[in-house]
Structures are given as structure tokens and as C-alpha cells.
GTP 3',8-cyclase
Amino acid sequence: MLDAFGRNIRYLRLSVTDLCNLSCRYCKPRPVPKLRHEDLASIDELMSFLDAFAALGFDKLRLTGGEPLLRKGLAALIEGGVQKGFTVGLTTNATLLAERAAELKSAGLSSVNVSLDTLDETVYRAVCGGDLADALRGIDAAVRQGFPLKINAVLQRGVNDDPRPLIDYARSVGAELRLIELMPFATTADYVADRAPDSRSLLRQWDAVPIGREGKVDRYRLPDGATFGLIAPLTHPFCAACDRVRLTCKGELIPCLHRPTVYPLRPLLKRKDFVSILKSLIAEKPPRHLLAEGVYQPIDMGSIGG
Ligand code: SAM
């Protein structure tokens, strides 16, 4: 469907849980109160949401979280999404993927994006609070299942100042590496202020040459020919081409990741005119984020669904 600014909005990022087995320092501040069961949208409700989004012409679905592999019923949701006409992707830290990859493939999952900020075991533990080996096992399983794979690393000073090891690793598993600018949220702004590198000077330091833009990803080549993507919402925003909205595991619509407007949709789901209500809310998606003006999302990324 078209929004008020002529953008074709067709991509739903659905957070299926706000629980996570990692605790990445830039993502979700700890401790986070656990959601009450009744506050979580059920799988049936999520299916009904998908029907409504499909009726509006949405055809891309990404399941995220929290850590989506912690959500019971994930495979059923993937199957349902595929039946409703969506191409279904998953964003995961991969630490629980080794045992699940085959099941998710059978359910119809199309692709996997893995978040992996570093290949240094000690740094991984310090920043994300988990075992790097688990994530690597998960990636291996995804490769064995033949999933198209992307590896996403959030740029942080002292964590991945040199992208080389990640680029080489991504290439070795047949994946594309995408570096992501560390984005400020109200709850994690201190960490971000401390750790966000200036991506422009990093690119200069690496002698990276731009080789084009694909959607929201700027592609670069290093002097030895290795390539990587950069997602730069701060220094090279892509709001004018944004085609997505987010739905939290509580059934709240978030039209723009960085704007505080949140619409709780569960109470409206049974209404006969739900699809047209949804359409009018999405049509009002803001034209751009206001990060440069210092307007930060008060909800943390882990609760919205990255
Ligand atoms: N648990 C899953 C994972 O690790 O991929 C899905 C949820 S996580 C919130 C989704 C993505 O958001 C991850 O790639 C994470 O690195 C990214 N993310 C979280 N906080 C961020 C921030 N402040 N800036 C940039 N990316 C962020």
C-alpha cells in the first residue's frame, strides 16, 4: 500500500517475543521486567494480524525479537506467513539455531540474518553476554540447510574497529557482511555515545570505495577486492525509500523505528473495519526519523524488534 509520501509499504517486521537469551549492551538495558503472558499477542492473534497486513498488499515478513527462537509456535507462524503469501525471513543471534534450522526450513523460512558483532570470544561475551561458539554452530546449521544468509554487525568502537575478520568469515560461509551504524535509543544512549564510531572516518581509514547502493545498503570495496555493506541510518538515511513498519509482540504498531508513536492494535483486531483502520495508521507513517534532531525512541530495540 502507498503511504502519504508515496512510499510502497509492504514489509512487516514482527517481533514475536521480547525475551532474549543474550543481553547486548546497546540493545536492551537490563533488568527488563518480563511481560505478563496476557500482554503477549497469541499466535492466533499474530496470524490474524498477518491476514490484515496481507490484505493491504504486504508480502515481506521478517520475524525478530527479542530472540525469535525463544517463541513457542515460531514454525507454525512461519508456515502461516508463507500460506498467506509472505516471503518469511528471520533475524536471530543464531545461538539456538543449530537444533532448529531444519525444522524452520521445512516450515518455509526463506532466509536468515544473523547478528554477529565480533569473532573474538571474550569481546562477544562482554558485549552480548553469550557464547560465540553457539552462534557459530547456529550459522553452520543455517549454511547446511542452504539458507541465503546475511551477517549483521553493529559497529562499535573496541568491538569491530577492523571489519576484516568478519568480512573473511562471512565470505567463508557464503554470506554477505553488513555493518550497521550503532543507533541511539533513549534507554541506551550512554553506551551509544561512548561506543559509536564515526563511520565516515572508518571508511576513510579502511580505504573503502563506494560501489553502489542496494535498497538501504551502501556497498563498499576494500583495496584487496573484499566487499561489504554498510547500513547507515545516521550518516546516509534511507527514510525516503523505507518500506517497512513494525509490530511488537504486544501487538503494537510502530510505523517508524525512531519515532515514539505506538498504536496498540490488539483491542481493535476483532473489528470488522480493522483492515481500513490499519491502512489509515500506516498511511500516516512519518516521512523521516529525527535522530539528527535528538529525538530518540523511548522503547528499547529489543522490545520493538530490530
Ligand atoms: N535477537 C535477534 C538478533 O540478535 O538478531 C533479533 C532482535 S535484535 C533487536 C535485531 C537487531 O537489532 C540485531 O542485529 C541487533 O544488533 C540490532 N540492534 C539492536 N540495538 C541496536 C542499536 N542500538 N543500533 C543498531 N542496531 C541495533
In short: The pocket of S-adenosylmethionine is lined by residues 20, 26-27, 64-65, 67, 91-93, 115, 152, 154, 180, 182-183, 185, 188, 301-302, 306 (CB under 6 Å). The first helix runs from residue 43 to 55.
